[in-house]
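Quick review question:
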């Protein structure tokens, strides 16, 4: 005879998942996860990847600490974007690590986008010698939307400069978010040079196969590369990477996935992780390049924020 549980697993769609992941605690949780990962207090093995039809991929990313365990599963079908359909779909199943009890099912694309933006925000805060008030976003997709929303919500950035493939794309992006972002000044640009004129940092959020930034950048400009996530992609020019200090969110993942760094043949012994800089004063000289590839540990950080939001509401 088989018993049946009567408990209903809470399922949160994209909007509800976003509401469970407020920006400020999410940034703090990511920093805590970086320290915990360095100290060996959480486990997050390399993600599993299976090929799917039409160039798709099925990704599985587990992570656990003494409190929570999760599995994020995602399907990625790049060809769907041409038909106006979502490229990424998936869920994050969160369980109690102590007894295995399922706790919630979160929307994976939303969680991924917001924790990725939180990693960027943490990098801006930690790696810059002065508060970053003006940021250029290169891209108008889902990650750009998440970055604009998270940076605006934190209240540290006062001006966002958006660059799209076309002026029309940048204008549509700015129009979509103008009312939502409130006090943040949002400006659309048709040319990158215009966006960088007053920006203290630039965040690249494309899936380009070739560099989208010029080789030379002002020494004080902090460069954050987010969009390139395979060895074949490269948003950042090799000359820039060779001229600057390079910081990554997760070194093991960057070695295999950061096409920018792989194609530039960076000297990995000189690459540091963001966790190395969390409790240190920013170094002088030219601003570094911060490259992120993501990690299941950052998903676990987001799950902790969502769990706390649920238990305190």
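Suggested answer, residue by residue:
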């Amino acid at each position: 005879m088989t018993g049946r549980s009567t408990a209903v697993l809470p399922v949160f769609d994209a909007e509800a998942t976003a509401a469970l992941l407020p920006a400020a605690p999410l940034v703090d949780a990511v920093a805590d996860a970086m320290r915990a990962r360095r100290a060996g207090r959480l486990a997050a093995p390399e993600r599993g990847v299976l090929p799917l039809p039409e160039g798709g991929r099925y990704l599985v990313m587990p992570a656990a600490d003494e409190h929570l365990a999760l599995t994020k599963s995602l399907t990625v079908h790049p060809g769907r974007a041409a038909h106006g359909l979502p490229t990424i779909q998936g869920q994050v199943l969160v369980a109690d690590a102590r007894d295995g009890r399922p706790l919630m099912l979160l929307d994976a694309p939303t969680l991924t986008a917001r924790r990725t933006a939180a990693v960027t925000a943490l990098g801006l805060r930690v790696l810059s010698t002065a508060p970053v008030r003006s940021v250029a976003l290169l891209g108008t997709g889902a990650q750009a939307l998440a970055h604009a929303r998270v940076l605006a919500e934190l209240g540290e950035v006062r001006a966002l400069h958006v660059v799209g493939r076309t002026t029309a794309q940048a204008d549509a992006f700015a129009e979509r978010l103008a009312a939502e972002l409130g006090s943040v000044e949002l400006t659309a640009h048709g040319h990158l040079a215009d966006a960088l004129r007053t920006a203290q940092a630039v965040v690249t959020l494309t899936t380009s196969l070739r560099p989208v930034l010029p080789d030379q950048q002002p020494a004080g400009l902090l460069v954050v590369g987010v969009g390139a996530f395979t060895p074949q992609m490269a948003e950042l020019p090799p000359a820039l990477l060779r001229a600057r200090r390079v910081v990554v969110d997760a070194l093991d993942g960057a070695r295999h996935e950061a096409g920018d760094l792989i194609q530039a043949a960076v000297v990995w012994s000189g690459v540091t992780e963001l966790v190395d800089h969390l409790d240190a004063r920013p170094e002088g000289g030219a601003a570094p390049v911060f490259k992120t590839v993501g990690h299941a540990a950052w998903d676990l950080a987001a799950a902790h924020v969502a769990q706390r939001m649920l238990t305190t509401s």
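Why it works: The radius of gyration is 19 Å. The chain has two domains: 14-110+297-312, 119-294.
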